[in-house]
Amino acid sequence: TILLGITKASLATDSFLSAASFQETARVLTDAAIEGKQDSLAGLKENVIIGKLIPAATGLPRYRQLTVAVEGYKAREVDELDIAAS
C-alpha cells in the first residue's frame, strides 16, 4: 500500500480531465496531449467539466429512455438537451 498526499493522489487518477481540474492544469493537459491520452469520462468531475450529464441517477443510460405515463398529460420525447437545460 502506498500513501500519497492529496495533491499527488489527485494527479494519479486515470482521468486527465479530473487531474487537470485539481492542480498543475497546464502540465497535466500538455502531457495528455503529447501522449495522445483519451479520457473515458467515467467519473462525475470529468462530465461536469465538459458539460455532459453525470453518470449517476437520471444521467445513467438506463434511465434516459424511461417513459412515465401520467393521466391527463400528453407524452413527448425528451432528449439530452431538454434534461441538461432543466
From TrEMBL:
Keywords from the UniProt entry: DNA-directed RNA polymerase, Nucleotidyltransferase, Transcription, Transferase, Zinc
EC number in record: 2.7.7.6
GO CC terms in record: DNA-directed RNA polymerase complex
Superkingdom of the source species: Bacteria
Residue intervals passing through the bilayer: none
Keyword Membrane: no
One MF annotation (Gene Ontology) recorded for this entry: DNA-directed RNA polymerase activity
Enzyme class: transferase
Protein name: DNA-directed RNA polymerase beta' subunit
Gene source species: uncultured Rubrobacteraceae bacterium
